[in-house]
Predict the structure.
Amino acid sequence: MIQCLRLLNVKPLCGVSGCGESSEEESSPRDKLQRNSKGLADFCIKNIDQADFGRREIEVAQQEMPALMNLRKRAEEEKPLSGAKVVGCTHITAQTAVLIETLVALGAQCRWVACNIFSTQNAVAAAVVEGGVPVFAWKGESEDDFWWCIDRSVCADAWQPNMILDDGGDLTHWIYKKYPSLLKRIRGIVEESVTGVFRLYQLSKAGKLCVPAMNVNDSVTKQKFDNLYCCRESILDGLKRTTDVMFGGKQVLVCGYGEVGKGCCSALKALGAVVYVTEVDPICALQACMDGFRVLKLSEVIRQADMVITCTGNKNVVVREHLDRMKNGCIVCNMGHSNTEIDLVSLHTSELKWERVRPQVDHIIWPDGKRIVLLAEGRLLNLSCSTVPSFVLSITATTQALALIELFNAPEGRYKQDVYLLPKKMDEYVASLHLATFDAHLSELSDDQAKYLGISKNGPFKPSYYRSANTHTHTHTHTHTHTNAGLSNCF
Amino acid sequence: MIQCLRLLNVKPLCGVSGCGESSEEESSPRDKLQRNSKGLADFCIKNIDQADFGRREIEVAQQEMPALMNLRKRAEEEKPLSGAKVVGCTHITAQTAVLIETLVALGAQCRWVACNIFSTQNAVAAAVVEGGVPVFAWKGESEDDFWWCIDRSVCADAWQPNMILDDGGDLTHWIYKKYPSLLKRIRGIVEESVTGVFRLYQLSKAGKLCVPAMNVNDSVTKQKFDNLYCCRESILDGLKRTTDVMFGGKQVLVCGYGEVGKGCCSALKALGAVVYVTEVDPICALQACMDGFRVLKLSEVIRQADMVITCTGNKNVVVREHLDRMKNGCIVCNMGHSNTEIDLVSLHTSELKWERVRPQVDHIIWPDGKRIVLLAEGRLLNLSCSTVPSFVLSITATTQALALIELFNAPEGRYKQDVYLLPKKMDEYVASLHLATFDAHLSELSDDQAKYLGISKNGPFKPSYYRSANTHTHTHTHTHTHTNAGLSNCF
Amino acid sequence: MIQCLRLLNVKPLCGVSGCGESSEEESSPRDKLQRNSKGLADFCIKNIDQADFGRREIEVAQQEMPALMNLRKRAEEEKPLSGAKVVGCTHITAQTAVLIETLVALGAQCRWVACNIFSTQNAVAAAVVEGGVPVFAWKGESEDDFWWCIDRSVCADAWQPNMILDDGGDLTHWIYKKYPSLLKRIRGIVEESVTGVFRLYQLSKAGKLCVPAMNVNDSVTKQKFDNLYCCRESILDGLKRTTDVMFGGKQVLVCGYGEVGKGCCSALKALGAVVYVTEVDPICALQACMDGFRVLKLSEVIRQADMVITCTGNKNVVVREHLDRMKNGCIVCNMGHSNTEIDLVSLHTSELKWERVRPQVDHIIWPDGKRIVLLAEGRLLNLSCSTVPSFVLSITATTQALALIELFNAPEGRYKQDVYLLPKKMDEYVASLHLATFDAHLSELSDDQAKYLGISKNGPFKPSYYRSANTHTHTHTHTHTHTNAGLSNCF
Amino acid sequence: MIQCLRLLNVKPLCGVSGCGESSEEESSPRDKLQRNSKGLADFCIKNIDQADFGRREIEVAQQEMPALMNLRKRAEEEKPLSGAKVVGCTHITAQTAVLIETLVALGAQCRWVACNIFSTQNAVAAAVVEGGVPVFAWKGESEDDFWWCIDRSVCADAWQPNMILDDGGDLTHWIYKKYPSLLKRIRGIVEESVTGVFRLYQLSKAGKLCVPAMNVNDSVTKQKFDNLYCCRESILDGLKRTTDVMFGGKQVLVCGYGEVGKGCCSALKALGAVVYVTEVDPICALQACMDGFRVLKLSEVIRQADMVITCTGNKNVVVREHLDRMKNGCIVCNMGHSNTEIDLVSLHTSELKWERVRPQVDHIIWPDGKRIVLLAEGRLLNLSCSTVPSFVLSITATTQALALIELFNAPEGRYKQDVYLLPKKMDEYVASLHLATFDAHLSELSDDQAKYLGISKNGPFKPSYYRSANTHTHTHTHTHTHTNAGLSNCF
């Protein structure tokens, strides 16, 4: 996966979600004693008084996360997480709040902490605390705060976690290091991020993984939504919010035609841009051709581009030499991978002047007056300058909830101390829970048809090995190689 | 024309352009004496100190308005407006600043005033003043301020206008009423808005128009860009900035398939929405069908719509009965005409609760808890919640500049005391000035080919009557009636 | 109008409609006495025995011409053409057969003749005769036959026409020349073609038009369908049937971005081609840009084009110099205007070898072995190599039927001896009759809304001058000049 | 794979390729002694005299098969198939002729036979024979002829095959049964079809596969092209050639949203149809939603459909109950799997009347007069009624050629007696050979970038397990399950 969606809720530009939290005081939340309206004091957040505003944001998010709401309804009586004590470490946003409160509705006791020092929506944290879940997180933590919060989330009087929901692996890491004895009680780890999954595979390889773990990152549904569809939605949004640029007739150069590139190209073409593609992989290049895009080398079209968008997952795709040849006003941004795709170092030289014209928008000015418009300092555009639809996050969140339920309720022996992909059938179940949003009605196989196809009437409808590879994108091979190895164990 | 673009620069939601002007003081600009760096005091704006920030916004706008910049270059020596004294009344935004400064570059002396009490970008006004042009305008004028400013813009020591550039007709009205003697010196009026043009035709009809006037509103290029293309760009932007909604798979109901509706439908379909259309005109309905949209009555699809967008130019298109039947979470907004399309009165009743969840976003809550998401209180969505590309405004601004040049330089007798459309050839010239942006290269007719077609090599390439009617949209007939008066002979 | 749709039924390539008529005998139909099953001998066609096959083709066409079928139902009792004696001169195809038989169902007596010596579908002619309508036409008439047939269609014992339905003006011309006395009885002429309309305007200009005439060619609905939508459908079909070419990834050069060019570009882009446009008119060029096409000169992209399609209405658009620079295998065809757009003369030189590889497909071979693939010898591609949907023809045919009804029933004095466009309201009625095909449901204006818009609840919904100019295409100005004569007053 | 492209060259409708072979004599080719111009008599085809016409068709095909032509050039000196004796059993069409002659150019000796009794293009067979390759095939063989030809192709004086190129497995089967001793000399089998591959896996499972075999069917490139892109091209073509139907505004129901369904939906939507989808798999259904299609049950939309297209790979998807409820004129066709998807049996009942209105087009007439238009009797539409672009076939043919080269030249021990997929890198090589067609220019990784990604600069760029699963379609699991097992052996 190229796009690191776990960070996508940061909305520095328009700051809609920040409206309730503008007057950030100086004192550290750690120095402050607060209580929610029911007297709970076991939490540490910015300001419990922002709970009302946060509740409103959560309610807005609920509307676009019908699968979780659906899950709440279905499981109201059953309480499949009854007895589960979940410690969670994720971004703390309206959407994760919907997840947390769903877990609670399903019977779980939760404690929560942020996986990122900047991304916490303080008002949402307040609302979750007001709802009764201890949260340890605020926007703008220090490194020290970060680990202090994680520590506090794990340890509580008379409460020990038996499930871990992690995003990035820091919580898992801390428990391994600080509270190894807890691991005996842990019935499973659910991990969402590329990095966290990679760490788990390393543990497994080293024979040190002592808990079953579920790799949520590589589910089919998540892959398609986090990349192709999400980028189709967010590329236009990110460019508009930062530059108000008109798309019609503009010449756009998209570097990379994996899922992210496909999503960007499709949206830009649809709005009337003339799109060029660069590729290194001949198969992706052939797809780009057949989809109606000219495939050229960066150097061949760089002079005429109005926008350059990197989506390769590689490094130094756009370098100084290219930037030197771009025309005045060219917009440069990155939808791909961390902040390596554009060679920023080459732009921090004395002859170039940087001018911040808007938040997240820098003009880099050449000696001859030429200006290049750099967005988000080369970091992920949609992380920085657009929002990601709650619906997309809903798919990941639902997968996480189902993974927790599966691991918590699995009979002894179904899962060993290894990394697993969510069973195909659950992947299909997550998808089916989201169909109601579109008022989509599935057809059903007759007995006869199922027999003809040699599959069960209720799915899975595709073989299990489809899951990790339905896309043809730039992915680090190691995560998958290992994954597939694990598969042979589980099914 | 449905879309009233002259208001489109208001950006209350994201307020990017407002960054430099947040600390609005209490005292009225009328009570304040200010001077620009060259000592000029003949102006009245919020704060001259914001000039630097405004200049930056103007520079950003210049990049997307190449035709005006081009005009500056071409006319550097010629100065076709040398001797022109232009009093202008428009929105005061970065884009109009580019226009004003182009007129100055072409030789004109200008004085400027706002046509709207809310839309002035204070920092831009400051930059224009710093550049030497007297401006009388600030954001948040009172009614009294408004006319005071207009009055101040007209009168100056030893300066009397000989050209009027108006948007809405208020300036023209004021001069007619207060300074009729000035009209003798006025060589022409250039008017952009539907309303202003209508007023001019009424004057003409009544035999009271004593100055040649140019109707800029109905030029082909403007019509296409202000409606079809501009709405294609802004509908997605407006919806995203307010609601972060995902478009893929959503069922959207677009009321009206004129140019505005066509633009909206095209963009939404391209992003994966399922779009339904309502229409009253069978020809537009047939176009919608052929373009792949189901044409149904509002009542037939209202229950399943995720979004309802009005683009009819009519009133009470969406009424309480429809709103009662919408599903929870349905987004309702208006791209059409002022704020009449949604019956807002029916929503201000005691049993419905209004809740403002974000700027420009209200939840209207039914007794059973159903929430309808109303954007911009039913006013134009893109006026309130998105920006309009500078490029689109560039076309209008260029047309205005050319109209001024034409009227100012026309030989005696070419224009009488009537309302004119810009000659076809100038319309084509405006278009040609914008082709460079797209690096588009026009072909040229050979002598032989021109002869074959019976036209001049240099255009106009289409008959003049094409100009006002290349679209099949909802337009008030009166503006056109005059233009095509001859038609009444034929039928 | 560029596309001459009246010729489009010729299907020489696939010859589906020719299946029943393969064994063409030698003897002329003029030498043969035939009778239909009811004893009628007053006709002259190829072979009455083909009637069954022709009837099947007519039945197929009826399915796609619901408006005419609808008209039959509605008018069953009313018989608005009762007393009408229509002499018609059109292509004789399954679709015109549906028109003829509709006129009969509405009460008219008809006699029919072909407007083209090649386009008659013999079997269809037989079926129409078997149905009781005298037809004088066969495929492959000589010039002499052509006029003989026209003469026979006009004159019959005790039968004199009082209405003319013409396509091209030859019938009208013949009556003017040979039977001027008949004109006194004629209540109206309905003319479909550009050429025929032009002739009528000339007559009118010369003061010689002594009958009211209806110009069907310039109705809004016909313009949109015959050009934009029809070309969108037929460009792919014509290319596939002749060359089996794959569209995905191919570089296509479309010359001209009027309605025909727009239709071609839209379809080709949708199927994955990379499309370039050439234009002489800056307004059309700007539209092409905004729609996502690079606008370049022919010479700039000629080397890389896989296909070149002319849609300009001009002559010598593609000349030898361009052809010399095309790459091997480049496909060249014309969707525009007669056969002038490609300079064929320059290809008939001794150093180039022509090789017919399939019907309508020639390879032109350069001395170095390069092959250019020329389709339909530069004549209209969709005339020669594809079919036009019956639905499109249905719109024209319905308009013709309504024009006949209008002229036949109009009260004394409504129409003078001039050329008229179909009233706007009828244009809208034609459209509305076709909506049922799409199961489209029109909305209706409330009294209040109609009043607000200042129009009638039942239309017309747009001002009448919209009709002739809703497109921005390459059209010969003369046909319109008359219609909008009044315009010359304004400027 | 659903689409069985190996049959796609049959062109019964338009019969372009049949032009040279219309006068089919009565006598069996087996009774006739013919010689080519060089005296060769070791062949059995319809008529050697048609060679010239066939050669022209081959030359046309060559233009769209640049990869093979490229391969010829590159390998001119190297002759990598020198010493190879290939017996091939495929459809005999212009495109396979290009493949055969490429193998010869690479050094192979070939003998060829048809894999289907109907699909041979007689003229092409003649041209191949005239070129020196013995062919045993004609259009309209009997069952007995079929096996007689196969037998003749295998056995020749002093010639024994050492490579097999098969399509369907009949040739392989015959050698296994009749000439098992030959298998010792065979260095490899290359098999293209689903069926043939399935047979090979069965042999392998049973321990009876005694030769390395290459599964060409499941290469990434072939999958994408044969399904998604090919169906996008051919669905429109097939419908137009048979019914001349207009797509704009038509309501189309596509059953199944795998690769085939995706291709069909994309093309139809692009041409203005309103498309509905049915699905059983929630993941595919969710994709359809996000792509803008309503997902409904067949029974919910059957009444309003103008066309119903099956793409499921399942059986009895459209049954009598559905057909009874369709509206008059509804077109029904199959793009999916053999002829099982539409329940034809239910239509062969006494109360329904069948009427053949055109080749491949039947009207089925209900007692009340309703007509359903059934295409190709429910067999694959594009097999029967359209052509498949040579370019698509080029990809398969190139893959076959490379597979032959690989197996023939592989060092002892690289391939065991098992079924293999083409190495990923070769898949990429096939793709790269086709990029020239699009004038596409690949970018190259720098050493640094390759290191960063952990891959080789020259590919493969994706992990090998990507190959068989880049699509999410309805595929029989067995072919893949086994395939993947095989994979673990080879890489």
User: Anything to note?
Assistant: The mean pLDDT of chain A is 85. The interface with chain C takes residues 248-249, 251, 269, 272-274, 289-294 of chain A (CB under 8 Å). The two ends of chain A are 24 Å apart (CA to CA).
